[in-house]
């Protein structure tokens, strides 16, 4: 007799393709779909931003929610479906119907009422996991992601309810607000403790989730170890060490339907591991599109990234004037730090035959860079999981990475002993411009040995980065959380 799978409420602040600022958007689109395919009764709770309201104009009201705390307005839940996946849209125009991304206004500043906005998301998530759920459906597990849902496990702890799981996608973002929000969001006064929701005299959504969730996860095994160290834990390492037995590192997957060079409609020339020759045609097309000389006399490096210190892109800027000497070309797509944006734009003006830059984000161009580049650069100082290196591997574009987080879990250096059958990329030995430059030289030398380069590409393209295995691991984690919660009641 088959064992019943836990039912799950998946709580997220973004979801591709409608609302995406980083990897969470992709995960929220792919993981619930994979869990549903595995037989899990799962529903996704997400704020009803303008993009979602426009995408689902026929969404129907399934619950009216009164004001659940002094600072929280009334709201309602709308039901919709995305390719069969049930969505619950948290409709509160006062908090969510506004321009800008989910967290920032149109000027790039934090929304001033983010505590109320995501306090409401957390409060509603917990309410759905408590007896008398307004839906008439109560999940076995409330699975929240990052700080935006982090108060839900705290509400479930103080008020009672089902098991909870919190997944940390980037511990650097913690959702910290003033003490005045404690009562405003409906938390009890005794929650203001070091072993409650208080964190350096602030209310921390993320700390609350890590303190009270039944089980914790993060997006790669290496990152799960790293965040228990002061260098990567952003002040929360002691709590994570205390809860180490409850913490799991589950490597993200990628949506292999979207990221498949054989069927990718964004590519002018589809190709596959069995028929890889057309990859070269994509390189020529990318060079032409970006205004670079169309040539196969040197490797083309690709970058798709937020332009920030975390991503190590300052290291690339420091050595990029040497690209003509390698020789090599570079295509950059991204946005972020304004000085870094200006630095790459100036670099492209100075080296027009070697560097092309587009500030912003373009999904089609991102796919074309993955397919057209010879090698992909990710010199990140820390990277919880990373998805682009997995896209690159799938597209036969060996990545150049630092051995941190999910990059360490997915990229095997092709020059390590016994790497002939597994080597799929290059690891940067250190956090300095010199270390990055040494790696680029190594890539160029290896690229010139085309039979060896082809073996590395094959090693990369034949790996399985689908969501099947991660989904199984999450199901095991849900079962564990349900079991632990039952023992505590």
How would you describe what is shown here?
This protein has 489 residues and is α/β, with parallel strands linked by helices. It folds into two domains: 8-253 and 468-488, Glycogen Phosphorylase B (Rossmann fold, 3-Layer(aba) Sandwich), CATH 3.40.50; 279-461, 3-Layer(aba) Sandwich (Rossmann fold). The chain has helices spanning 23-37, 50-55, 93-96, 114-128, 151-159, 181-184, 205-212, 221-226, 237-242, 279-290, 313-319, 338-350, 363-372, 388-394, 405-410, 433-448, 450-461, 468-488, and strands at residues 8-11, 42-47, 60-65, 75-82, 85-91, 141-145, 163-168, 176-177, 198-199, 202-204, 215-218, 247-249, 300-307, 329-336, 355-359, 375-378, 399-402, 426-428. The strands form three sheets. A nine-stranded mixed β-sheet has the order 3-4-5-2-1-6-7-11-12, with helices on both faces. A six-stranded parallel β-sheet has the order 15-14-13-16-17-18, sandwiched between helices. Helix 5 (151-159) packs across helix 7 and helix 10 (279-290) crosses helix 13. The longest helix is centred in the last third of the chain and has 21 residues, at 468-488. It is elongated. The two termini are 27 Å apart. The model has no long low-confidence stretch (mean pLDDT 96).
Describe how the helices and strands are arranged.
Blueprint: E1 8-11, H1 23-37, E2 42-47, H2 50-55, E3 60-65, E4 75-82, E5 85-91, H3 93-96, H4 114-128, E6 141-145, H5 151-159, E7 163-168, E8 176-177, H6 181-184, E9 198-199, E10 202-204, H7 205-212, E11 215-218, H8 221-226, H9 237-242, E12 247-249, H10 279-290, E13 300-307, H11 313-319, E14 329-336, H12 338-350, E15 355-359, H13 363-372, E16 375-378, H14 388-394, E17 399-402, H15 405-410, E18 426-428, H16 433-448, H17 450-461, H18 468-488
Helix pairs in contact: 1-18, 4-5, 5-7, 10-13, 11-16
């Amino acid at each position: 007799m088959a064992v019943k799978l836990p039912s799950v409420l998946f709580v997220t602040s973004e979801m591709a393709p409608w609302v995406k600022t980083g990897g969470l958007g992709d995960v929220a689109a792919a993981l619930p779909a994979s869990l549903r395919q595995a037989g899990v009764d799962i529903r996704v709770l997400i704020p009803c931003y303008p993009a979602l309201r426009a995408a689902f104009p026929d969404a129907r009201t399934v619950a009216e929610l009164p004001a659940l705390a002094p600072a929280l307005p009334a709201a309602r839940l709308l039901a919709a479906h995305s390719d069969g996946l049930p969505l619950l849209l948290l409709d509160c125009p006062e908090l969510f119907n506004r321009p800008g991304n989910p967290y920032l206004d149109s000027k790039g500043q934090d929304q001033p009422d983010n505590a109320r906005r995501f306090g409401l998301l957390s409060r509603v998530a917990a309410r759905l996991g408590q007896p008398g759920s307004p839906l008439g459906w109560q999940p076995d597990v409330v699975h929240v992601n990052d700080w935006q849902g982090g108060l839900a496990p705290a509400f479930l702890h103080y008020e009672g309810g089902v098991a909870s799981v919190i997944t940390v996608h980037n511990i650097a973002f913690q959702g910290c607000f003033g003490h005045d929000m404690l009562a405003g969001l409906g938390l009890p006064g005794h929650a203001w403790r070091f072993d409650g929701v208080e964190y350096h005299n602030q209310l921390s959504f993320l700390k609350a989730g890590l303190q009270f969730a039944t089980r914790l996860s993060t997006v790669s095994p290496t990152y799960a170890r790293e965040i228990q160290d002061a260098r990567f834990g952003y002040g929360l390492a002691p709590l994570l060490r205390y809860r180490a037995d409850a913490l799991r590192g589950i490597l993200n997957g990628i949506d292999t339907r979207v990221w498949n060079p054989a069927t990718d409609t964004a590519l002018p020339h589809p190709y596959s591991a069995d028929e890889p020759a057309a990859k070269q045609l994509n390189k020529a097309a990318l060079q032409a599109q970006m205004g670079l000389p169309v040539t196969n006399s040197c490797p083309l490096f690709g970058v798709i990234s937020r332009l920030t210190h975390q991503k190590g892109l300052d290291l690339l800027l420091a050595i990029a004037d040497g690209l003509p000497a390698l020789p090599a070309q570079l295509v950059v797509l991204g946005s972020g730090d304004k000085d870094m944006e200006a630095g790459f734009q100036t670099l492209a003006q100075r080296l027009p035959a070697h560097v092309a830059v587009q500030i912003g984000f373009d999904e089609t161009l991102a796919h074309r860079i993955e397919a057209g580049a010879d090698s992909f650069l990710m010199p990140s100082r820390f990277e919880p999981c990373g998805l682009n290196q997995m896209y690159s591997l799938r597209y036969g574009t060996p990545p150049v990475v630092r051995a941190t987080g999910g990059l360490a879990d997915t990229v095997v250096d092709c020059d390590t002993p016994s790497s002939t059958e597994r080597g799929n990329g290059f690891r940067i030995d250190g956090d300095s411009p010199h270390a990055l430059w040494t790696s680029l030289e190594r890539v160029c030398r290896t690229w010139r040995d085309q039979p060896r380069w082809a073996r590395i590409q094959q090693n990369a393209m034949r790996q399985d980065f689908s969501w099947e295995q991660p989904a199984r691991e999450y199901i095991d984690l849900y079962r564990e959380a349900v079991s632990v919660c039952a023992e505590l009641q």
